[in-house]
Amino acid sequence: MTENERIFWNRILELAQGQLTQATYEFFVLDARLIKVENQVATIYLDNMKELFWEKNLRTVILTAGFEVFNAEISVDYVFEEDLSSLNSNTSNNDSNATLQPTTQQQTQILPVIQTDLNPKYSFDNFIQGDENKWAVAASIAVANTPGTTYNPLFIWGGPGLGKTHLLNAIGNSVLLENPHARIKYITAENFINEFVIHIRLDTMDELKDKFRNLDLLLIDDIQSLAKKTLSGTQEEFFNTFNALHNNNKQIVLTSDRTPDQLNDLEARLVTRFKWGLTVNITPPDYETRIAILTNKIQEYNFDFSQDTIEYLAGQFDSNVRDLEGALKDISLVANIKQIDTITVDVAAEAIRARKQDSPKITVIPIEDIQTQVGKFYGVTVKEIKATKRTQDIVLARQVAMYLSRELTDNSLPKIGKEFGGRDHSTVLHAYNKIKNMIAQDDSLRIEIETIKNKIR
Ligand code: ADP
Ligand code: MG
After folding, report:
1. What residues does the Chromosomal replication initiator DnaA C-terminal domain cover (predicted)?
2. Please, what is the angle between helix 189-202 and helix 234-247, to 10°?
């Protein structure tokens, strides 16, 4: 043991003694040993059953001592009797011997077979790239090509239905294709928590540890659910898993509906780690990408889609790829029932009517915000938008703002009219239809409006 390690350990004992009753201290702490501190990870030997207690009650003590002695955030890797025997002796059974210097081949023989839970239908090939996801795709491909070395962890965030789960699985499938022996696990944070609970209940935490800490690639979906759970120990367990993998240069990819910094209820040290690698964002697909996604998707269906229909659909669902796919399913259902081969705009409109009504419009956007952004874009004040002056610039800004108010909020036409200086609902409808028609013919206007939309959201 180095001098620092000795000071560190003594400090832990001292602090623990100050915090615990004598009996608790003797039972839980006295026979623990510090094996080493390396790469800011303290390896501590414990009785199996005592780990939870340590995790729960002595984390702060270890952190404190770590900062005092090493001036760093020290994490912990607990090891147990069986780990020790495999570390120390060559005469125990063969299996544990082999774990001493695991080569990839040996590893795959010894460790239990893992169920990847990957969805084989998601690949890079069937993921359409656009400006809004190109960095996420590039990073995902880089990670899949050289897992554990490029960006670790890779943190992909974005709104629902934008392809996070797809990319996560594509990474896993691609790695698996290269290396069928790779130990890969896809899991939602929600299920990670469930597994944790089950293992706690059955008192089989070691199994869980074995399962997750021996992976080559861990793909965790929707990490934000970990933040919501206050269940004691889950974040800790995840933290330890993360460290164990990261320290061994094993790749971790996480997805989330928000940035690491916005994961409010997550422990700061986890957030810090999430930012160690690369954070990439996916935003809603623009019109071109939506057309491309649809054009690609309709190949799965036995119908003819007119170009009009594709463009119409791309105009209907603009914030979520899942909705686009859902629309195609609706259409296929209707077309099957009615035995229609060619999908016209009318057929499509009819089929998706219910979905359009369901699809949540974003009510939280105040009309005022829309007016402000549109005004800024066209160099017009909100006051002018609301007033009656009819110069060309102001009229366009006014009509675009009305169009977006209808498009992006749930407000009724009369309500929107009222917000625009008390105009009649028919004026709003007229503006809406006018802009809608213009967009269909005028690419630059469409792009302008997309740009404004992105500012508003
Ligand atoms: P998220 O996990 O971000 O909520 P998903 O990955 O589940 O979104 O994507 C929803 C659906 O949309 C999936 O079926 C996925 O295949 C599809 N999808 C999303 N983005 C794309 C894209 N760029 N190209 C092709 N399909 C996509
Ligand atoms: Mg998802």
Report:
1. 366-435
2. 110
Indicate which residue's Cα is closest to atom 23 of ligand 1.
Answer: 128
Binding residues: 161, 163-165
Q: For residues 146 and 229, state if they share a domain.
A: yes
Coil, helix or strand for 314? helix
Q: Residue 321 CA: which ligand 1 atom is closest? A: 12
Measured CA to CA, the distance from residue 14 to residue 6 in angstroms comes to 12
Task: Identify the CATH number of the domain in which residue 425 sits.
Answer: 1.10.1750.10
Confidence of residue 106 (pLDDT cuts 50, 70, 90): very low
The answer to whether the predicted template modeling score (pTM) of the entire model surpasses 0.90 is no
* Within-domain flag for 111: no
Mean pLDDT of the chain: 86
Do 190 and 273 reside in the same domain of the chain?
Answer: yes
**What confidence score (pLDDT) does residue 86 get?**
59
- What pairs with residue 93 in β-bridges? none
Using the atom order of ligand 1, give the atom closest to the CA of residue 122. 16
Bond prior to 160 in cis (omega within 30° of 0)? no
CA distance 152 to 254: 10
Please state whether beta strands 154-158 and 251-256 pair in parallel, antiparallel, or not at all (unpaired). Answer: parallel
> 159: which 2 tokens?
């709104």
Q: Which ligand is nearest to the CA of 322?
A: 1
What is the residue whose two structure tokens read 């962890």? 153
Nearest residue by C-alpha to atom 18 in ligand 1: 163
